[in-house]
Amino acid sequence: MQRREFIKVAAVAGMTAAATSNILGQTQASAAYTSEMQYRTLGRTGEKVSAIGLGGYHIGVQSDPAESVRLIRSAIDRGINFLDNSWDYNNGASESRMGDALQDGYRNKALLMTKIDGRSKQAYQQQLDQSLSRLKVDMIDLVQFHEIIRMEDPDRIFAAGGALEAALAAKQAGKIRYIGFTGHKDPAVHLRMFEVAQQHGFRFDTVQMPINVFDAQFRSFAKQVVPVAQAQGVAVLAMKTLGGGGGMLLQSKTVSAIEALHYVLSQPVSVLIAGIDSTQILDQAFNAIQSFKPMQKEEIAALLTRTHDASQSGQYELFKTTARFDGTARSPDWLG
Hints:
The longest helix has 18 residues, at about 5-20. The chain is globular and about 50 Å long. It has helices at about 5-20, 25-30, 65-75, 95-100, 120-135, 155-160, 165-170, 185-200, 220-225, 225-230, 255-265, 280-290, 295-310, 320, 325-330; strands at about 30-35, 40, 50, 50-55, 80-85, 110-115, 140-145, 175-180, 205-210, 235-240, 270-275. The protein has 15 helices and eleven strands. By secondary structure, it is an alpha/beta fold. About 45% of the residues lie in helices and about 15% in strands. It has an eight-stranded parallel beta sheet. A three-stranded antiparallel beta sheet has the order 1-2-3.
């Protein structure tokens, strides 16, 4: 598919996003519930995953590593089976703590995901081996190319000697099962990643992106990227649902945490990855699930109207408008 045709398809798909954002769609139509958690389908993989995923960064910030382990196990015991992480989170502490938590039979209860920064084959291989060691596993269910935030990132990954070669070799060797990518900067970069993948005959299993009520009205991933992912059967993983950085959206005083979570749960996402650093925040995530009813079109319209002015400049989505969340910009050597 030529670039002009790809952009045209993406634009047409984006036009339908607003009309479909209030319905469950295929991902959520197949949802199932336990007493505390809802489960959805992880795209074309067919895996059943908890609608709330445990964010890897926040799980590594506790002063006591034992508290991190306790939180992870408590989340799993209550029904969360999707675990997020990254090679670079907290200088490896997040993966190490999660590895400790996955002992004593917990590994078999969770779909484990981490992210790799390396753009070259060598850097990817080295980082993946470190992640496997820290997580204390022989296989990671899902590994995603991390921080696709520059237009040249897709070209580097898919180039000869690029990270994709290492990922495919790792999959062949049984070290990983599924491959995805993440990014938080601009929908255009995500669309470029899909375009380059298509040029190389490759299809991702997952894609992670910011989805929140402010995103819907400013450089929107939900409107521009989600329809492309859906068309390819690629599972959508939502992040920055409260704006990151301690819940920046809430500082606008235009939306509550539960409203923000319900909005994202009403989108066609497989998993809402939540930053959980305390029992209180863990309880909040489960409260959002237990009180969740898909938002109707009128409810969404009212919420978008209420948050419209605050969303326009990106002042509460600093991951889009500043370098504050760009770890690979601060440490370019991670890219290889």
